[in-house]
Amino acid sequence: MSSLSRRDPTSHGRFNLEQQRKRAKELLKAARGDEPAALARILQQIPPREAPLKLTDAQLVIARECGFPSWPKLKAHIESLDASRRLLNECGDRDMATLHIRCGSDIEHTLRTAGFKGDFLEFSDPFCIGPLQDLPPKELMRLRARFLAEVSGMTERDALARLRKGYGPLDQLERYERVVLWFEHDSYDQLILAYVLHRLHANPPRGRIELVAVESVPGVERFIGIGQLAPDLLAWLWRQRRPIEAPLLELGTRAWQALTAESPEALQALADTGTPALPMMGRALARHLLERPGADIGLGLTERLTLEIVRDHGPLPVSKAFSYLMREYEPLPYLGDLMFWWLLQPLIAEPESLLAISDIHQEWPHRQLALTERGRAVLHGRSNLTAGRGSTAAVPSLNH
Q1: Is residue 166 part of a domain?
Q2: Those residues with Cβ within 8 angstroms of residue 46's Cβ, 6 or more apart along the chain or in another chain
Q3: Ranges of Basic and acidic residues compositional bias (predicted)?
């Protein structure tokens, strides 16, 4: 990337102050040399004027391109990142026996790189799809293992063994003085967080419980998840963790009970409260409810968006459709690529498929998707799937 290029909107969030100063100086030099690209960038951020450009003007442009309202705000954020890294090096999580819980393995290595020393637990049962019931852990694992085996190609035995690695340690927290939950704002994370909070509410550990909850990061235009962040950003988030107290534990139980209810009314009522103990959970629950088949055409939001992507850009590979969904179409990205593939199955199911898919001998990410005539009719409201829509394994968890 050249020094005059804009910041990647899916950046890892790490900034170097000297590098940004250098970029500002280079931008100013290019603008004074009447280079069109430099002048266009400046005019996007600063209204035209007669006064000669100064370094402070170029710094303002750089700051705004990085997602900050001013150069002092960018500078203060970078200094905060540097201070967080120093503090982590001095102590970090070494003052207490600590367990970090995350709904995936995406930050395990990054935590180690940043300097964290505590144990790590991955709990990644994708509650955002498939059946849910308010059952004791062993029975819930069996229910989920049957579903995961059906949609993933694993054996039920292997699926159950994988689930036990996450569920089991939640009953073995006695030796930890601190348990830290790392979760972002989407429905994949928040549904798992609700369950973990519910379990901790029912069986409180002896140590303190803390939460790192993230829905945006300064300088990251399209924040999708903690896993995209640089190690320094985890040190910065560590300083912002907060204790988990009774109202949040109670919210976890309420959310889990609503998620496992027979009808969606309780979940809708909870989402409508805004969940003051953790507002991002309410927004995630509201997004989760949009996976219910709509009364107009019988599609959930992910299905509708997928048809729109194929209409707008297809034919295209499954992997490219997923990329469009995550980067441009989905208002609250939550799916992994394999979950997206699972959720495609009702759309490509014959005999009346909404999407045509190419050669079955190709790996699924490379198979081409195209909109069928029936898919086009449904998308444009000339047909409705609600009546007679068959059941499928890969359904949202709120569809029992």
Answers
A1: yes
A2: 57, 60, 61
A3: 1-11
pLDDT digits (tens, 9 = 90+) for 339-358: 999 899 999 987 889 999 99
pTM exceeding 0.85: yes
With cut-offs at 50, 70 and 90, classify the pLDDT of residue 151: confident
- Does any domain span residue 178? yes
The residues with which 370 forms a beta bridge, in sequence order, are 356
Name the band, by pLDDT with cuts 50, 70 and 90, for residue 398: low
Is there a single domain that holds both residue 42 and residue 152? no
Q: What average pLDDT is seen over the chain?
A: 90
270 closest CA partner among 278, 258, 256: 258
Residue 98: φ, ψ to 5°: -125, 140
Do residues 186 and 225 make contact, with C-beta atoms less than 8 angstroms apart?
yes
Q: Are residues 24 and 64 in the same domain?
A: yes
Give the orientation angle of helix 156-167 with respect to helix 137-152, to 10 degrees: 130
CATH code of the domain containing 174: 3.40.1360.10
**Amino acid identity of 7?**
R
Q: If DSSP codes are grouped into helix, strand and coil, which group holds residue 383?
A: coil
pLDDT tens digits, 22-72: 999 999 999 999 999 999 999 999 998 888 999 999 999 999 999 899 999
pLDDT in tens, 212-222: 999 999 888 88
Structural domain contains residue 288: no
The reply to whether 263 falls in a domain is: no
Contact 318, 365 (CB under 8 A): yes
Interhelix angle for 231-238 vs 71-90, to 10°?
80
Number of domains making up the chain: 3
CA gap 261, 255 in Å, rounded: 10
Q: Does residue 52 have a cis bond before it (omega within 30 degrees)? A: no
Residue 337 near residue 394 (C-beta atoms within 8 A): no
Phi-psi region of 179 (alpha: psi -120 to 50; beta: other; left: phi over 0): beta
Beta bridge partners of 122: 102
Please check whether residues 27 and 63 belong to one and the same domain: yes
Measured CA to CA, the distance from residue 375 to residue 380 in angstroms comes to 9
d(CA 369, CA 364) in angstroms, rounded, equals 10
**Structural domain containing residue 56:** 17-82
